[in-house]
Design a protein that fits this description.
The complex is a heterodimer. Chain A is α/β, with parallel strands linked by helices. Chain A has helices at about 25-30, 80-85, 120-135, 165-170, 180-190, 210-220, 235-240, 260-285, 300-310, 325-329, and strands spanning about 45-55, 60-65, 90-95, 100-105, 140-145, 150-160, 200-205, 225-230, 245-250, 255-260, 290-295. A six-stranded mixed sheet of chain A has the order 6-5-4-7-8-11, with helices on both faces. A three-stranded antiparallel sheet of chain A has the order 1-3-2, covered by helices on one side. In chain A, helix 1 packs parallel to helix 9 and helix 5 (about 180-190) runs parallel beside helix 6 (about 210-220). The longest helix of chain A is centred in the last third of the chain and has 25 residues, at about 260-285. The two termini of chain A are about 25 Å apart. Residues about 325-329 of chain A have low confidence and may be disordered. Chain B folds into five domains: about 1-80 and about 675-705, no CATH class; about 90-245 and about 640-665, 3-Layer(aba) Sandwich (Rossmann fold); about 250-340, Sandwich (Immunoglobulin-like), CATH 2.60.40; about 345-460, Rossmann fold (3-Layer(aba) Sandwich); about 480-635, no CATH class. In chain B, helix 1 (about 15-25) runs antiparallel to helix 3, helix 3 (about 50-75) packs antiparallel against helix 19 and helix 5 (about 105-120) runs antiparallel to helix 6. Chain B is elongated. The chains are: A alpha/beta, B alpha+beta. The interface between A and B is medium-sized, with 40 and 28 residues.
């Protein structure tokens, strides 16, 4: 494939609209050359690079099964027949594509960004990296979020390179605000996507614990491969405020707290770390992937660190970018 | 403490600065949009928050204190320490011996007692000047006080000192005593005035005379130990006990009363008119005025007022002088009310020579009054100087048949020779008179045969034998029993009364012929319907009255004019909420000796102060309201006098012993500036503040790191 630059897109299908701003060469540099393997077998119809639940035309041997009349003789293991005088069919792996749906949280809390970009912008960058990576592998990628009134904003997965611009065309025009409709969105997606797929949640997870549990469980029990990209700002992680501050709720305009941060810092961090631990445990327990997208780190680097472990079969939570490999990169 | 640079105290305004920094600085907050609000809500900070706040407040206080200390230090405060003195203080005692102390029962004795107790409180070796409160009388002593010698000598001198008719001008007396005592060495002085309640001699509270006196006594503490004075001089700032004259004289009346008074012009202009202001209850009464010849300043005039008050109740009288222009200058009047009496009409039937008896008119007036009160004996033992006013008529004995006795209150029957009279006429007339409520006194001469007198004339007529009664002396007067209302098991009241009387071995009785008031109930009666035992509801209890003969030689005490008011006053006292022995045991009788030798204040054997006036009206006998009881006690009670005495003496004792007055007086002082100490304190404050602030900042940084 001819590439004009390291954005990964051919010249003919290179994004030109607002989505073009998401193509940060630095972020893409981190994931260039990586692949996004699927943890589960694909059920897609189209041939691709991922192992399928079907057996078929691949060269990699899978197993034997007894011959039944009507099976194609071409698949008969003649050698085994010669040795054991038994009729067995020789089966091989099949490879298909894996559809991926990126779910972007655009609640008001994603609007936060003090010393870094907004969390929402950071999540968009990560989404762009993922889309670029998957489209480069001809894997279909879709995107889901919600409009201001709570209606679903759904871009169905497609695998054409030009689909990149369509993915982000709408979401870029809607700034994050209001309360979270993540649970409603996920529940609405279930009937639309009956086949197994990969679901990547990019969210800060600031919602009710029971809702989060419900979302993850709903997706995993239906066989979807769920990966949670936890978008966080460094101020949320470390609570670095010092002066007396009025904290105004981003998800509720009328709500605020007048707080002395020095007094609250220890208790806040204790509670917040508890939240992180619980969320990671929940993901591990439900078989979901977890990686942290701290907004003071490169989204590409965090994603690359996650993919290396993920592709290597290490499904433990990834809490940050691999700085050493980044430097080495 | 004083300030040599007091202008710098304006620097205290600077404490606003740390306050402003504290409060306004706190309000400047950074506004931060925030998404993870739920974790702030769920975070529970520990005690550090309060700790930080306390430290903030402590720092604020330190800063305020530092600013204040700085301002105070610049103001150069100085301590003034009094120099030690050789003589601490001296005490001047002025004791009242004016005529008014004699006129009211018990006052003279109280003054003696009070003076004695005041002397007891004086520390040894205190220089004491002792004055007897009469004009132009030199001090009895001016020597250092020796409790063993001076006390006895001074009290003896006081007791022997006769009362004078001159009322001291107290302002002059105090000033005179103060000047004499001031030998120029003592720097502090206390003056104690022990005086009675009379109005005269004391200027009005707002008068210039007082102001001048207080001004003159600037370095002197003046104490008044009043006796029986109702109101106080609250407007005099330097007085510990301000006391003054009640301008009103209270009487109980139901008929015409007469006021006899001596009015003195203490003003500077001649007066032409004496005005009496009568106030009866809530009714506004017009002024009564009496034109008089020109009453020069300093001159006195005796006046007699009469006025009818048909409704019974208290009456207040105020006397004032007016000059020709009609104005009433302040402090121009001193009125001594000698007597306020009901208009008692007495008729004396005698077979003696009217000329001879009229020659001793004054003495007869005395015993006529005593006759009305039922106690002629008191006249023989101790002549009273109290001059009552009577409407007195002298009639020959044979004029009885033609005389309408109903016009009189008292009939004095001083007839020895019965030969010229018809016993029936005398009997009928006097009996009717007594039955209508009149007072009757038989006053035969000593030559008459009493036995014959009784046997031939009275016993069978009046059902009694005045001369024949023989009673124990202590029971010779009356018996009064009080039954508490909360004990209902008192069966029958009459038996209780009789049992008590029997126990007391009472041999004879005398019934009253007065009509019973509406609130009374006759329990036992003599044949013929005359009451012997009377029950009367008073306040919360009941009173059972039995009447006994008061004097074996005299007539019907119970029917006399003075008896009924006495009983009423007694009942009021017993029913008063202030009476300590209010609830008697069933059957317990309060035996009181009736000493109606003169109206006024009396102390019963129970310790109950009572007052006796001569008011024949009993129809308004009702429960006392608290106000009435208080008023009665305040005006006429010895109880009040006693409590005031104790209060005053306690106060005096405190002043003389615990609170050294020399400390309050102005003395030479030495001044010592203390600004350096304040600066040292300021330095300490600043060091402490810096340390605390540093610690606070460190804690904050550690918390946000």
């Amino acid at each position: 494939m001819k590439r004009s630059d390291n954005s990964g897109f051919p010249e003919s299908s290179k994004p030109t609209g607002a989505a073009a701003d998401l193509l940060d060469s630095e972020d893409f540099g981190w994931i260039d050359g990586l692949e996004f393997r699927s943890r589960r077998r694909s059920q897609d119809l189209y041939a691709g690079r991922h192992r399928s639940t079907q057996l078929g035309g691949c060269t990699e041997f899978a197993d034997h099964r007894p011959y039944h009349p009507g099976d194609p003789l071409r698949q008969m293991d003649w050698r085994l027949l010669a040795k054991s005088d038994r009729h067995y069919i020789k089966r091989f792996e099949d490879e298909r594509t894996v559809s991926t749906l990126i779910i972007l949280d655009r609640s008001g809390s994603m609007d936060f960004g003090l010393s870094t970009d907004r969390k929402f912008d950071h999540a968009l960058k990560a989404a762009a990296c993922i889309a670029r990576l998957l489209l480069g592998h001809r894997d279909p990628v879709g995107l889901a979020s919600w409009y201001e009134n709570g209606d679903g904003l759904i871009v169905k997965p497609r695998s054409t390179p030009s689909h990149f611009e369509a993915l982000f065309a709408d979401i870029l025009s809607i700034p994050p605000s209001g309360e979270s409709y993540l649970k409603d969105l996920v529940m609405g997606l279930i009937p639309l996507f009956p086949q197994r797929m990969r679901v990547i949640l990019l969210s800060d997870g600031f919602m009710d614990d029971a809702d989060m549990e419900s979302i993850l469980q709903t997706l995993t029990v239906r066989g979807h491969e769920v990966i949670f990209g936890h978008v966080l700002a460094p101020e949320e992680l470390h609570f670095t405020f010092s002066e007396g501050t009025r904290f105004e709720d981003l998800e509720d305009e009328d709500s605020y707290r007048d707080i002395d941060p020095a007094v609250y810092r220890e208790a806040y961090l204790k509670r917040f770390n508890q939240f992180l631990d619980e969320l990671q445990d929940r993901c591990t327990r439900l078989g979901c992937g977890y990686f942290r997208l701290a907004s003071d780190q490169s989204a590409g680097a965090a994603l690359a660190a996650f993919l290396r472990r993920w592709n290597a079969g290490n499904f433990a939570p990834v809490l940050g970018a691999d700085q050493k490999s980044a430097v080495a990169k | 403490m004083s300030f040599l640079g007091i202008g710098f105290l304006l620097g205290l305004v600077g404490i606003i600065l740390p306050l402003a920094i504290h409060f306004f600085g706190k309000r400047r907050k950074v506004i931060q949009p925030w998404g993870a609000m739920r974790f702030l809500d769920e975070a529970k900070p520990n005690w550090k928050r309060r700790s930080l706040r306390l430290q903030d407040i402590l720092i604020l206080l330190l800063r305020i204190g530092a600013v204040a200390l700085l301002a105070l230090a610049f103001a150069r405060p100085a301590l003034q320490t009094p120099l030690p003195l050789e003589s601490a203080h001296e005490i001047v005692i002025i004791t009242d011996r004016s005529l008014s102390t004699e006129l009211v029962s018990g006052v003279s004795g109280e003054i003696l007692k009070k003076t004695g107790r005041a002397l007891d409180q004086i520390p040894a070796e205190t220089k004491v000047h002792f004055y007897i409160g009469r004009n132009k009388v030199p001090p009895a002593s001016g020597e250092p006080f020796n409790s063993e010698i001076n006390r006895k000598a001074w009290l003896a001198a006081l007791e022997k000192s006769p009362t004078t008719s001159d009322t001291p001008d107290w302002t002059d007396t105090i000033r005179l005593a103060s000047n004499r005592a001031n030998d120029g060495q003592s720097l502090s002085r206390q003056i104690l005035v022990i005086a009675d309640a009379s109005r005269h001699g004391w200027p009005a509270p707002e008068s210039e005379v007082w102001k001048q006196l207080i001004s003159d006594l600037k370095k002197t503490s003046l104490y008044l130990a009043p006796i029986g004075i109702e109101s106080v001089l609250r407007k005099q700032p330097n007085l510990c006990v301000d006391q003054v004259v009640p301008g009103q004289f209270r009487i109980q009346t139901g008929k015409e009363v007469t006021v006899k008074a001596i009015v003195t012009n203490r003003g500077t202009t001649p007066a032409r008119e004496i005005v009496a202001d009568w106030k009866s209850g809530n009714e506004a009464t017009p002024l009564s005025s009496l034109p008089i010849p020109a009453l020069e300043p300093g001159a006195s005039h005796e006046v007699v007022f009469k006025r009818a008050f048909p409704e019974p109740g208290p009456v207040a009288i105020r006397l004032d002088l007016k000059n020709p222009s009609g104005t009433s200058p302040v402090d121009d009047t001193a009125a001594t009310v000698i007597d306020i009496v009901d208009q008692i009409s007495v008729v004396v039937f005698t077979d003696q020579s009217p000329d001879r008896t009229k020659a001793s008119d004054a003495s007869f007036a005395n015993w006529a009054f005593a006759a009305a009160a039922g106690h002629p004996e008191s006249l023989q033992k101790k002549p009273i100087s109290y001059q009552p006013l009577f409407h007195l008529e002298w009639l020959p004995a044979d004029a009885l048949a033609n005389t309408e006795l109903g016009r009189y209150d008292v009939v004095v029957w001083s007839v020895d020779d019965f030969s010229k009279l018809s016993p029936e006429t005398v009997h009928d007339s006097l009996r009717q008179f007594v039955e209508e409520g009149g007072g009757l006194w038989f006053r035969p001469s000593r030559q008459v045969n009493t036995t014959d007198y009784n046997r031939t004339f009275f016993p069978h007529e009046f059902g009694l034998s005045p001369a024949g009664l023989t009673l124990p002396r202590d029971l010779s007067e009356a018996a009064i029993g009080l039954r508490p209302a909360d004990q209902e098991d008192l069966s029958p009241l009459a038996s209780i009364a009789f049992a008590a009387l029997d126990e007391l071995q009472v041999k004879g009785y005398l019934e009253t012929t007065l009509p019973l008031p509406a609130s009374s109930e006759s329990l036992l009666e003599f044949a013929g319907g005359k009451s012997f035992v009377i029950r009367r509801s008073i306040g919360k209890g009941e009173v059972i009255l039995t009447t006994l003969d008061s004097n074996p030689e005299s007539g019907n005490l119970a029917a006399c004019v003075g008896y009924v008011p006495y009983v009423r006053e007694m009942l009021w006292k017993l029913a008063s909420s202030r009476s300590p022995n209010r609830n008697f045991k069933p059957g317990e009788f309060a035996i009181n000796e009736i000493r109606i030798d003169r109206p006024g204040l009396h102390l019963t054997e129970n310790g109950q102060p009572i007052s006796v006036s001569r008011i024949p009206e009993e129809s308004n006998l009702e429960s006392l309201t608290r106000l009435e009881a208080d008023r009665l006690d305040r005006i006429e009670g010895l109880e009040l006098l006693d409590s005031q005495l104790n209060s005053d003496l306690n106060r005096l004792s405190t002043r003389l012993t615990a609170d050294d007055p020399s400390k309050k007086m102005e003395r030479p002082v030495q001044t010592r500036e203390i600004w350096s100490w304040l600066l040292l304190g300021l330095l300490g404050f600043l060091v402490f503040e810096v340390l605390l602030a540093h610690q606070l900042l460190s804690r904050r940084r550690a918390a946000t790191r």
